[in-house]
């Protein structure tokens, strides 16, 4: 069986979005841009219907399906960041035309939700010391863009 591929439904901006995403993440590229041979509800014959792209080594398909099914925060992509500099870089990029939400979540200019999250946090919230994990979660709930130093301070507070 081939690896799973996530299909993301766009309203005419699949190629633009794919090029934006692949410019931000390592091991990413646009693999193919495919034109529709027929008119569809989302586009005309000869227009881009799908874009195959890779983000951080994982395959995605962008589909220009039209306005019928917009993204919701019920599905988001998590970007585990190595440090605050990476959080800041990605946060700034996704903020351009996007909407910051809470707890490291941001909706980009195409409507897709992302979680820009320090990798450290993903481990800290699983800490067997429930008090530490609780302090980190409580600190995170107070943030929009995540602040790694503040999260670590909450973790180490006694």
Shape: elongated
CATH class value of the largest domain? Alpha Beta
What letter string, H or E per element, gives the SSE order?
A: EHEEEEHEEEHHH
What count of helical segments does DSSP give? 5
Low-confidence stretches: none
Number of strands: 8
What layout of secondary structure does this protein have?
Blueprint: E1 6-10, H1 14-24, E2 29-35, E3 48-55, E4 58-64, E5 76-81, H2 84-95, E6 99-100, E7 105-107, E8 113-118, H3 119-124, H4 130-141, H5 148-156
Parallel strand pairs: 1-4, 5-8
Antiparallel strand pairs: 2-3, 3-4, 6-7, 7-8
Protein name: VOC family protein
Organism: Ancylobacter koreensis
InterPro entries: 3_dmu_93_MTrfase (IPR009725), Glyas_Bleomycin-R_OHBP_Dase (IPR029068), PhnB-like (IPR028973)
């Amino acid at each position: 069986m081939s690896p799973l591929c996530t299909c993301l439904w766009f309203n005419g901006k699949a190629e633009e979005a794919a090029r934006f995403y692949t410019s931000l993440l390592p091991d990413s590229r646009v693999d193919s841009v495919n034109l529709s041979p027929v008119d569809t509800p989302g586009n005309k014959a000869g227009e881009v219907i799908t874009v195959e792209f890779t983000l951080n080594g994982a395959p995605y398909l962008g589909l220009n399906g039209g306005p019928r099914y917009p993204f919701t925060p019920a599905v988001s992509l998590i970007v585990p960041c190595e440090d605050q500099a990476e959080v800041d870089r990605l946060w700034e990029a996704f903020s351009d035309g996007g909407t910051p939400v809470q707890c490291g979540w941001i909706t980009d200019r195409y409507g897709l939700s992302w979680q820009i999250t320090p990798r450290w946090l993903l481990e800290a919230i699983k800490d067997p010391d429930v008090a530490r994990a609780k302090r980190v979660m409580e600190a995170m709930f107070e943030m929009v863009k995540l602040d790694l130093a503040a999260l670590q301070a909450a973790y180490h507070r006694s």
